[in-house]
Amino acid sequence: MAEENSGAEQQQQVAPTMKIVNQYIRDLSFENVAAQKNLGGEIKPEINIQVNLDANKKAENHFEVALKLTAKAVSGEDTVFLLELDYAGLFIIENLPEEQLHPYLMIECPRMMFPFVRQIARQITADGGFPPLNIDNIDFMALYRAELERRAAAAN
User: Fold this and answer.
1) 19, exposed or middle or buried, with CB in 10 Å at 0-12, 13-18, 19+?
2) Residue 62 burial (CB < 10 Å; 0-12/13-18/19+)?
3) pLDDT one-digit tens code per residue, 118-127
4) Is 83 exposed, middle or buried (0-12, 13-18, 19+ CB in 10 A)?
């Protein structure tokens, strides 16, 4: 009897694990509209950042999580630049209860990828002739909760 309890306790004590297999740019676009339209002078654009997340199961315990970032800089009615980045990561996730999987994919995985997305956006805007774009930290838990609330409201 003691051996049975010991085995059950060991199964319960197995901690969830996550391994990042790969991270990569799926698609990247940067348009320097200001240069194309010859917008000169002192431009102080307003920058709008949008983030979308998606996750797909690829194989047993293998998941692809995509973080899509759009940064649009506008000055008045003129677009100054447009950055679209589709960045993905392949993850192996084990020993995680099924009910915790979706929030984990939508919160923890993007949190791991975000520093790389921020660095790419910073480098691309600098290489595009603008000051480096410094994106503030994103609260992926708040985004997840907001999406749950939006879906609940749409269902009613």
Assistant:
1) exposed
2) middle
3) 999 999 999 9
4) buried
- The b/e string for 107-138 (b: 16+ C-beta within 10 A; e otherwise) is bbbbeebbeebbebbeebbeebebeebebeeb
Q: Do residues 67 and 88 lie in contact, with contact meaning Cβ atoms separated by under 8 Å?
A: yes
CB atoms under 10 Å from CB of 35, counted, come to 14
117: left (phi over 0), alpha (psi -120 to 50) or beta: alpha
pLDDT in tens, 94-118: 999 999 999 999 999 999 999 999 9
For the chain, domains (ranges, CATH) are 22-155 (3.10.420.10)
Q: How far apart are CA 27 and CA 6, in angstroms?
A: 50
First-to-last alpha carbon distance for the chain, in angstroms, is 51
Strand, helix or coil at 120? helix
